[in-house]
Structures are given as C-alpha cells and as structure tokens.
C-alpha cells in the first residue's frame, strides 16, 4: 500500500511540474526591494518612481525578514482580546517588561506590522515576448495589492482567497522595467472581522507579504481564460465550459480539443477525446462541450480518490495555440432527507477544523507536500473531512485533498460577528459573493471542494435573509457542491434554504449532571431539522501544556505563551510535575473525545461532526484542545491507531447504562456496528471479550452472523455477564472486534463488592471537621481521617468537575470548570482497595464531579498530595483532593472529595475509596513523609485564598482592555 501511495505521489508531482498553459514563465522569487509605509505617505510621495531602500525575500512575509516593530504592550493587534485582566495580575508584571515580554493570548511573531508595505523588483522582458499577452501572477497576497509598472499605475485588487492577477500586456515592452507592489493588510481596506481566521493574530497572523508562485506569464493573445468541468455521474459524462478570451481586435476561429486520462488510481482509463469549433469575437466567448466518460469511468471519493487530468487545447486557424490542464474528479454530492450522499452512497463526515495553524511562518503553506503531510496525519486519525474556519486555503490544499480523498469545506474569509456583520449593507456583503466567486473559479474543478459556507457565526439584523439568498445564488450557479449559509452555534437563526446545517446542538457530554453512560446520543437535538445536520465545533476539551513543544518553534513565531505558563508553574513549585500533568490530563481529554465522538456515531440521522480540534488552537487565550500540537505532531499520550479505534469508517459501539457496577448486578450492553465504508460487509460474526487489566480473560462470546450494510448502524446483539464471581474491586475491559481485521473498540468498567468486609475497630479518629478532638488526637501522636467534603474555604473558588476545562479559562473570564483532571500514584498504599491508573477515569466521576479542592498555597514547598487536581495553566495553583501529612507527632489523612462513608448502592466507587482510605489510615503503612503545621491545615477550612481571579486589577492599557463581544 505504501508503495502505491508513493507512486501516486510521484505521478502527482510530475503533473504539477507540467505547465498550466503553453506559456513562458519568468519567476520573480528572490530578493526584492522594500519599504514600510506606516504613515501611508508612499503614494503621495511617488515611491514607485525611485528604488526602495530595504531588502526582503519573496515569497515570504515582512516578519521573516525581521521587518516591523518589536512586540510590546503598545502593539495594536488584529484580534480581540476577550479578557486581559488576568494578564495584569501583579505576579505577572515581570512578563510585561520590554526585555521579557510574553503575551499569553497567542503565539508571538518576531516583529509586527500592519499597514502599507512596498515591494519592488526590476525585471528584464525578453524580446521574444513582444506581441504576447503578459500577466503578473501573485498566488497569494495579504491582502490588498496596488501595482505600478515603472511610473504607470495598473490597478488594485483585494482578495484573501485567490491569486491576484494583473494584465500587463500594454505596460511591458522588451527590456528592463520596475514592478512596484504596494501590499496593505489593514482591515480598513475590507473589514472581514478582526477574529476571522483569514486575518487574525489568533491563528495564522495578519502577515504582510506575497507568498506562493510569483511570476510573469507570457501567452498568446487568444487564450483559454477558464476551463470548468461539471461531472454528471448519473449520465457518465462531464460537461466542460471554456471561456475563450480574445484580446486581439479581430474575430478568431478554430477548434477546441479535449483529452482526459485517469490517474491516482490502479485502474487506467483513457477518455475518448472531444472536439468542437469555436468563433471568438474580441472579448469573452463561452464554448461548451460534452465529454463522454463511458461505463469505465472511475469515481472519486474518500476510498477511491480517482482523478482525471483534462487537457484543453485551443487551436486557432491562424495564430498560436493555447493549452490549459486541469484536474477533476467524477464525484456527485447530493442530499437525501437528512443524509449526505457521495455518488449515491451515504457518507458520515468525520471532520476536523483547520483554523490556519502555521506556527513557523504565520502564513499558509502553498506547497503540496506540506498539505499532504497534514491531511495524511488526519487520515491516520480516522478523519475524512476538513472545515477551514473563516478562510480558504491555497490551491495546494485542494491538490493534496484530491489525491487523499478528503471532503473539504472552505469558507468565505470572514467571521462577521466581531467588528462587522452580514446583511446590513456593509461592503462585506458584496465581498463575500466576490470572494466565493473567485474560489469557484480558482478551485471549483477540485473533487475535494465539496462544501461551502459563507463564513463563521455571523451577526446582522438581516443575516438570515442574506444567507438564504447566498445559498440560492450558489445552488443555481454551481451544482458541484453543497451549500450552507454559515457555520453556527446554537443561538443562530435557522436558514431553511440550507442544503445542510452546521450547528452546535448535537455535542457535549452530559456528565456535569448525569452519571456517565454510553447510551446517550443527540437525536433530540437534530430531529426538527429536515436537512443533514453536521455538528459544529465539537469537543474543545483541554489538556495541560506540553512544554517539550516549545523547542519546535524555530520559525517566525515563538511560543512565549507556553514559556510564561512553564515559568509560572515553576514559580508555584511544580516544574517537576509538568510531564505528569500533561499525561494525566491528556488521558482525560482522550476519554472525553472518545465518548463524544461515539455519541455522534450512534446518533440516528446525524450527518457528521466537525471537531475543534484534533490539533491545538494557539490563539484565543491559548486553547490546548488537541491531541496534536499546532505542528500536527502527536503529544505522545495517544497514538493514531488508538484514536482510530473510535474514529474511522467502521467502529464497534457498545451502549453501557453505566461504567460502575457492584457484584450483585449483571452487565448488559447492547452492541452495534457503525459502518460507513466503501461497501457493505459480508455476513460477519463480531466477537467480544471481557478481560482484566492484567489480560486475564473473564468472558468471551460472539454475535450471530449478520450482513453489514454501509451508511448506517447495524444492531449486533447484547453482551451479558453476571458479576457475582468478582468479589474484589476490579477494573475490566469490554472489547468488540471484527475478526480478521484491525477494527476493534473497547470500554473500561469497574466492579465493586456489594458488601464490603467490616474493618476492625481502631484508634483512627474519623471526623468531618478539624475540631478540638482532632487536634488533641494529633497532639498525642494519634491518627485522624478528616472527611472534609463541603468544608473547604481556601480553594473554594476553584471549580472542579469530572470533565476538563472547556476551550480555556482566559477566553471565558475564568468560567468553570478550572481543573483539568488530576494526578495520582496508583501504587500508593492508600489506594490498595481502589484500583486506579495515574489519571482520572470514569470510576472517579461520582467522587470528583463538583468536589471541592484544597488550595495548598501555604503548604511547604515540594509537598505532594495523594490525589492532586491539575489547575488551569493560567493560574497553576497547587491543589489537593486527598492528602496526608505529619502534624506534630500525629498523622493526618484529609479528603475533600465526595466520598460515601455509608452503604450507598448508588455510589459504590465513592464508598470503595472511603473504605480504602480508612483501611490505609488504620494500617502500619500510614507513614506520611511531609510535616505540616496544624494551623496551616486548619487554614484550609477557615481562610480564603490570597490569590483569586476576582482580585486582578482592571487597569489595563487601552490596547488590552477587555472587550465584551459575542464570540462563542
């Protein structure tokens, strides 16, 4: 398989090496002259008429040449800072100094510049180009360009999505000429919204420069301006529309010939050529041809991404021929009720958001290998779809997605909710139409360009009408893809004209209020929508920072935010725990993603999900929501193969009513198989096993053989196991597998004794308050077990739930929860009767959900609790859920967790942990190594924390004052 992929990739590179047209090309990459224009004086001063003083290398950005201002508190960013008050905590003053400036809200570029910048290059036009049509091609500019040739102004273009092309035929004669390009990246030229991922500092950055292919192109005066292919899978043909542009003064006649051949497939197919005459008057003429594909046609989808290369030859009877090559796929996107169909087969979108994460350059990659690497990683994790949040990638992304079989949804380059709106008569209204039209022209032939939205989460009094009109406009103009008004959260209005809906209702875990199960789904959220429903921005579960990632920032951007968090962790005496925090919080994050994704897979009628995201979002306060970092590299607490067990075309599912049982119960779990593969599976008998963590087989079985159709979930049967034989606390794993394949999925569950053995009477003083008797017992060298649930004062401000931080606490002004799992030593003798891993898992839910935590700000440096919650990395408070200490001559065990000291059938895990802790307190192993003064412990239950978020100063400079915006 790898050999085939390599051969296909090699063939693809060969195709890319072929010219788009039979035209000469003069590359313009290299050194250019440059000058920044912060006061916008260059036009009036006629800078285009003299050599510019500085140097810059293009393609590239100003920051790559270290041009611009250093970063400081006065930097006027192109992004909304939702709440900066946390950054002005007095203890962070050292990070606001010029020699140690570390902004925590996003990555830090080397330099920063917003405004006009001038780029200039002298070119020598060959004599052989006399009489030819000459075009300046700038693959991607950011984002308003204005062009002069010598002293003559040519024009201006604005686009964030497509190449800027200038016809210079009349301006260039053989010999030397000076090209001067003024690039302006101010939103004043077109306000798409400061948080739009096309421009925002949250992600790729508001860079200034020119990237991708920069070249002068020479071609004939009569040429193919556009070749657009419209596949018709049902009739096994392709309609080809060619726009012939005649820049001469005479009518020209001739023939157009089409040839097409399949590639990126193991099945060769040479399409019969098609020929038609044309007559082109000066201006534009449209020629339409039908290309019969025959019964041998190769269809494109995620499983068989067969492509065709079409060569269109324009041959005038007199004059020079013009040739253009395009690629396309025979692919049909349709809607049937609430289902998405690709070539008539139901498809479920397992999507990821690409937000414009380019941490080395700050601007999008324009080369195919870079995008092939990213999409290959996504495919390895089981994804088949990418949404580009409020931006459109360069052509290379579509090329790579074509080859790998990805369904792409680019968007208009706007988040018209922050600083602008839709439907209110602002310039953005027409700009979205113009930009999506440019996208259709530039990328419309790509098979991977399957879906389109106007943008993300719009605002505007008339937005619903605007979006409805947008959908209807594109439905009639280009049937090659499906259209939706915008990607939206719950409160946005429904647009009935949408061909599919992207909405946030079908997401989340109900675990803040409900005991975890794997029976819930999202059918109630989607049942009122008549069109396919794709879940908007699902996930957003946080993990602690991976400080090993910092060294990977070798380009323009540096992870000063992560440096700040790392140093602050060290200031709180926990630098040595960074890796443990990462691993433990990562396992909890993975557990949440697994359960949320599985809930979407078992939801009848759901059309897919878009995850936010598989990789971290380094902006908006630093949202560490990925199992990958912004470089699309793994953080090493989960492999792609492990992730793919619950996220791929075929996934076994089990509906467990709970994950914690007692041994007087019977496990019953309904099993089903989610299957959206290339075809139905033959009659298959799936198997199941139940094993201990040591691998001991407890039970096994198989389901009755059944045919597995594609595009649906198939019930398999029920796993049933009486648990009476399990007399001790046991961690078990249920696995369901498709024999003979790598397809398998698993679920942990726990069994506890329904009746615990009685503990012997002992001298352990058990109390719920640190009262006078507890002090006396400790003073005489005795033992105290303080079950302090609900009594904590120092740490009361820290909100803990079972699930981790959502997005990040800074972006939402410290909205709870604040804790991202916990670390624990599984081998600690206090947990002998409570089997656990080193991180939170589902048996802990009833113990930690909404539990109080203790803030150990006055405990000795280096003190480590038995169970240590992981605080938000913005505050890094040293916390505890269970701790032990020597207090004078006595020994103290303290828990603020939600334990259950009495027989409680509804909370067997909480009862089991209480039993394990009390048994430990009675044992000879109860030998705390750290000493703590009694008053320090007592302070936990009497005195509030000194450092609380609510006490942070609001005296922020104007540039960083909190902005109240409707963003999430």
Automatic annotation (TrEMBL):
UniProt signal peptide: 1-22
EC numbers, comma separated: 3.2.1.23
Pfam families to which the protein is assigned, alphabetical: Glyco_hydro_2 (PF00703), Glyco_hydro_2_C (PF02836), Glyco_hydro_2_N (PF02837)
Ranges of residues in domain Glycoside hydrolase family 2 catalytic: 334-486
Reactions catalysed: Hydrolysis of terminal non-reducing beta-D-galactose residues in beta-D-galactosides
Domain Glycosyl hydrolases family 2 sugar binding residue range list: 28-186
Keywords: Glycosidase, Hydrolase, Signal
Gene Ontology cellular component list: beta-galactosidase complex
UniProt-listed InterPro entries: Bact_Beta-galactosidase (IPR050347), Beta-gal/glucu_dom_sf (IPR036156), Galactose-bd-like_sf (IPR008979), GH (IPR017853), Glyco_hydro_2_cat (IPR006103), Glyco_hydro_2_N (IPR006104), Ig-like_fold (IPR013783), Ig-like_GH2 (IPR006102)
Domain Glycoside hydrolase family 2 immunoglobulin-like beta-sandwich: 222-331
Disordered as annotated region, ranges: 948-968
Record-stated family: Belongs to the glycosyl hydrolase 2 family.
Protein name in UniProt: beta-galactosidase
Organism: Hymenobacter telluris
